[in-house]
Every structure is written in C-alpha cells, then in structure tokens.
C-alpha cells in the first residue's frame, strides 16, 4: 500500500506536479507514492481505488498551484463547489480518516487558500501548515520537500512503536527509560513553523 497520496487537479501546474512526483519516487521509491494517473491500472474501479487509497494513506500531499482554487467547468461552475469533485472528495476522505494532510504549494507566488474560500468539509485545509516547492531553485526545493516528508514518515514509524519482544523466560528485556531527544530540521522555502512531531522527535520547518 503506498504511504503517500498525491492529490492534484489535472490542469493545474502540470510540469511542477510531474517534477514533484518524479523526485519523491526517486527519493522514497515509486511504490510508496500513489498518483492516480500512474497508479490505477486500466479497467480498475478508479472511484473505489481513489476512496480506499485516500482513506488508508499515511500522508496526503495536496498539490496546489495557481489554478487549483478557481478551476471551473464548461458552465463556469467552480470545480471545488461540485459535491462530486474528486479533489474535494479525496481531501475530505483523508481528513475524516484522521490522516496527516499537507498542503504543498507549487511555485513562488501560490498562496494557501482561506477557509472561507473552501467547502466546509475541507475548510480545515486552510489551517494546516504548508510546504512550498518554489519554481526558482527548484532542485533545492524538491530536496527540501523530500527531507520534510521523509521526516514525517519517520515520525509515523516511531509512533507505531517496536514489535513485541520475547515473553518471560526468553531472555532479559532491555532496560526502559527516556531516550535522547532527536531534532530533525527541514528547511522549507516560503516560511514555516516549529512543532512537536512526537515525544522524542522534533521537526523544525524553517
């Protein structure tokens, strides 16, 4: 099961979106990244797969470019305002499942949408700390994105905890006690904030 779900709108910032997918696949392995255009086989029930992957992913990256918020259909209706819009459904599914959702802003000028501009079921997206992949110095930006997501996945692995050890009579259990604090730093263009990722890990987005 892929750990990272890339949610995106097809007409929006396609070339940067493809660069993000390629960079993350190279960094983490292609099998760890779910991208609908590449990860759904021909003839499969795409609706079922999208819902299941959005619900089961460990981390959803919502790729937001300049055309993400205001994209419209042929009748001029904003896509996000349609109840069956797949981007809206993907995000809402991940949020309901309690998965970590990270807005990833593509380009130097893209802004995180205000909650008032989003449907109520995904308005929480506007309150989530974002990462940015700038168009200027793109290779460095992709590296920083990979660093940040790797740290978040490591956090998830730490929260899962070690597997149970041998029971009584099978050796002496290792002594327990506080482990040293580990600080990981992810430098994110466009700003960020420091937050406690777990009791024994701190990730600082700067």
Report on this model:
The two termini are 31 Å apart. Strand 3, helix 4 and strand 4 form a beta-alpha-beta unit. This protein has a domain at 4-139: Rossmann fold, CATH 3.40.50. The chain has 5 helices and 8 strands; from the N terminus they run βαβααβαββαβββ. The strands form 2 sheets. Strands 2-1-3-4-5 form a 5-stranded parallel sheet, with helices on both faces. A 3-stranded mixed sheet has the order 6-8-7, covered by helices on one side. By secondary structure, the protein is an alpha/beta fold.
Query: CATH fold name of the domain at 4-139, please?
Result: Rossmann fold
What is the typical, i.e. mean, pLDDT? 82
Q: Give the overall form.
A: globular
Low-pLDDT runs of 5+ residues are 163-206
Number of strands: 8
Helix content: 25-40%
For the sheet with most strands, the description reads: 5 strands, parallel
Name of the level-1 CATH class of the domain at 4-139: Alpha Beta
Order of helices and strands: EHEHHEHEEHEEE
The gyration radius over C-alpha positions equals: 19 Å
């Amino acid at each position: 099961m892929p750990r990272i779900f890339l949610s995106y709108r097809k007409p929006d910032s396609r070339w940067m979106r493809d660069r993000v997918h390629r960079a993350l696949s190279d960094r983490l392995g292609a099998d760890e990244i779910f991208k609908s255009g590449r990860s759904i086989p021909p003839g499969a029930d795409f609706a079922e797969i999208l819902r299941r992957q959005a619900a089961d992913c460990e981390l959803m990256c919502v790729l937001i470019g300049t055309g993400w918020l205001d994209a419209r259909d042929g009748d001029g209706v904003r896509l996000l305002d349609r109840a069956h819009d797949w981007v809206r459904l993907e995000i809402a599914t991940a949020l309901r499942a309690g998965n970590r959702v990270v807005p990833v802003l593509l380009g130097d000028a893209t802004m995180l949408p205000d909650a008032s501009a989003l449907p109520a079921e995904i308005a929480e997206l506007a309150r989530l700390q974002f990462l940015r992949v700038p168009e200027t110095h793109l290779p460095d930006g992709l590296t920083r994105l990979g660093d940040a997501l790797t740290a978040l996945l490591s956090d998830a692995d730490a929260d899962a905890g070690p597997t149970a050890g041998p029971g009584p009579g099978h050796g002496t259990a290792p002594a327990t006690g506080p482990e040293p604090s580990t600080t990981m730093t992810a430098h994110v263009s466009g700003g960020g904030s420091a937050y406690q990722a777990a009791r024994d890990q701190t990730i600082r987005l700067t």
